[in-house]
Amino acid sequence: MSAPDYRAPELLANALGIKREFGADARVVAGGTDLILRMRDKVLSPKVLIDLRRISLASISRHAGEMHLGAYVTLSQMLASAEVRVAFPALVEACRSFAGPPIRNRATLGGNIVNASPAADLVPPLIAYDASVVLASLSASRVLPLMDFFTGPGKTVMEPHEVLTEVRLPLPPPRTAASFTKLGQRRSMAIAIVNLSARLTLDRAGQMSEARIVLGSVAPTAMRARAAEAILTGNEPSDEQFEQAANMAVAEISPISDVRSGKDYRKRVTGVLVRRALMAARHKLAEVGRND
Amino acid sequence: MTDMDIRLTVNGRLQHAKAGVMRTLLTVLREDFGLTGTKDGCSSGDCGACVVVMNGQVVNSCMVLAAQADGSQVTTVEGLASNGELHPLQRAFGGTWAFQCGFCTPGMLVSCHALLSSNDNPSREEVLTAIAGNFCRCTGYQGVVNAVQQAAAELRSANAEAVLQHD
To answer: Measured between beta carbons, which residues in chain A are less than 8 angstroms from residue B133?
Structure first.
């Protein structure tokens, strides 16, 4: 294998031009914490590396009811952002659980998404928050829900000439709280056995007008436990409701056994974590209520 | 493809290197600049023996391409001592037996030094968070926590004295 050509263009248009010319033979590199390893292991051998570091894709900004995060925003940047912490606490909890400080300083939001690992920590909270991704190409750009982005492990709907440039998060409605929970072999530096996010929105009467349970590491892509969500919707949050929803979530999944966990343990622990995540979201709702 | 010209400011000195695309910051530091304090442990970002500060942030130098680091300011463990004097953190590591074999120590020192630059009185939990990406496989982490807290106390009292003298 010959070494790839390295380019660090200053304009997004130039990066997209290289993508147009080389397609899948050109790989975007951001933090490199995943890509560089896979290149060293010869799993990937791109002809061209497009480093995004000179292109300004690392900003966090508010736009009419949405927060826009550039694809090059690092996990450390999200952890340090008061705006992200306040609006999207479950996303920040996922960042905190992710690897350790040296990796968090390099690994990016966009990288965690485009790698399409079923165990990506940021994906369950992003889906719980209704994230969309912006895919740019030289001719056009399109926005699509993150939920529709993944098609399998390492597989997405992104075209070879497209680059993920931005993630858009609608600001959550009032009386909404979300949580993230993860089980790994140890607290730091571990890929998840199960990682998931729960989000609850209450109506004025205190009933759950919306419930989201987004599971990672238990299916080829992150998935919503829709039957479990349906159990909760329209009801008042209670331990019994959460127990039923957790059992339903377990019934909805058929995880695999791998080096991190057997499938039976994964199922069992998913039930425990769904219940905990729902309880954590309810706890946060109570705090929000007190502040209102 | 021909090698690229890489310019780095390492421990305050401008340095040049030639590097192919897949050469890492770690190999340039060790092989071209002779800064062998930074270690190659796992080569995959898991162990933290290769941690250096790049543009103010700790990074795994085994996973940064030299090309990506072009133009950066880098501090390695060799940059902690000044004028032949060990940094108080380094002395505290020795004093509290914060290491046994010493292979993880350069990365530990760089991570802890970075912590002290933003937090002059870290709790045990804050130290453990700062070194979450640094593995020690022989003596454990309690000595490191003790060393950081001891160095922090020493630095705080030195700062207080400096302020008094300045007034």
So the answer is: 99-103, 188-189
Bridge partners of B60, per DSSP, are B51
d(CA B167, CA B156): 17
- B42 close to A (CB below 8 A): no
Q: What is the pTM of this model?
A: 0.95
- DSSP label of A147: G
User: In the listed set B56, B79, B102, which residue is the last one of a domain according to the structure?
Assistant: B79
B 9-38 residues with CB below 8 A of A? 20-22, 24
Q: Answer whether A145's CB lies under 8 Å from A130's CB.
A: yes
For B4, the closest of A6, A37, A101 (CB atoms) is A6
B58-109: pLDDT as tens digits: 999 999 999 999 999 999 999 999 999 999 999 999 999 999 999 999 999 9
Q: Whole domain around residue B56: which residue ranges?
A: 4-79
Angle, alpha carbons B73-B118-B39 (nearest 5°): 50
Given B24, B43, B51, which is nearest A102 (Cβ)? B51
What CATH number does the domain located at A5-51 have?
3.30.43.10
Residues of chain B in contact with residue A5, where contact means CB-CB under 8 angstroms, are: 1, 21
The answer on B161 and B120 residing in a single domain is yes
- Choose the closest CB to A101 out of B22, B63, B133: B133
What are the tokens at B135? 């593995």
Over the stretch A152-170, which tens digit does the pLDDT of each residue have?
Answer: 999 999 999 999 999 999 9
What ipTM does the predicted assembly reach? 0.95
